[in-house]
Amino acid sequence: MRHRFAHLLLFFLPSTLLIGEKALFHLGSIPVYWFEALLVVFVTLTWPEIKKEGIGRLLCLPAVIRWGALLMLPALAISVAVSQVPQDALGAAKSWFIAPMLLAVLIVASGIGVESLIFGVVIGALLQTAYGLQVLPDQVEPRLMGTFTSPNFYAAVVTPAIFLAFLIPTKGKWLAITVLIWGLILSQSLGGFLGLVGGGIYLVISLVKAKRTRFIIGILTVLVGLLGAGIAKQRFVDNPRSSLASRQEIWRVAWKIGSKHPITGTGLRSFDRVYLTTVGTIVGNPIEWNVPEPHNLYLAFWLDLSLIGLIAMLLIIGGTLAQGGAAAAALIAILVHGLVDTPIFKLELAVLFWLYIAIILSLRGRRDRDLIV
Description:
70% helix; 373 residues
């Protein structure tokens, strides 16, 4: 019975992210979110398994991942200490990293299986798509966004879910994949298209053995890549103030900021303030003044989490990807998307990122981790 409730919790957890950054309640001035409350419930339900074999399961993980997790603690401490808004930085550290990383650790330590979580992530992405389609006719910008204010955030949810859908052992997965790809196309997100191509290439080269399936995935990858290139050309070529031109300016400024703070970075929630005081000295007439993050995941790791944080995240990500499996394509999609966006530095996206890591590590060594038929 405990296991059933634990699986139900994992199934519904991704759907609770649809409400966004609305706190369940506050402890003083610190918000507590739904997923953090569910984390406590999950521990209660799985404590006998965690207590019995949890430490052993965690010690079986590659040392590089364990070292990365340990380095995250001083990295977050530095990030909060140097931030210009330490209270906001502490909240981000808790909700973007500490709590979801702890949730991932507990999922792996419990050993109860992540099938329901995989279903939950895919269902959550489908619900995002359904909501986005409902409100799309009333939007000023005709791009699918789901519950978000940016189509790039929506794409960061949908693209990894496309690859996790391959692990669903029913024919209904093809319908889910089709709907999610259609949602991605309607989002017109360059980062989403890049992520889909990156994950698709990984699947075709590394995992898919059936010729028919390899052909279908290969064709879909090429078609979506061409479609993304066409949309990019339409939106970016001959537009000196396009979002791509804006990103190029932001990357220049971010690199300059990083060169001034190479060890500590700027701290969580501080990039926008430092950017505002720096951009005018580098770009005469910048396209954007209000920039919360540097639109590049790796620059964000460096500037928001310090050099130690960048190293820690690379260790965790590298050690996780080394486990392989179909679920790794979801993480690769996020990493490729991260070349042009920061698809982790937001509550819902951060929680999903750590859930992808939990799924990959929980499936390590299992025969069905490459279920693509």
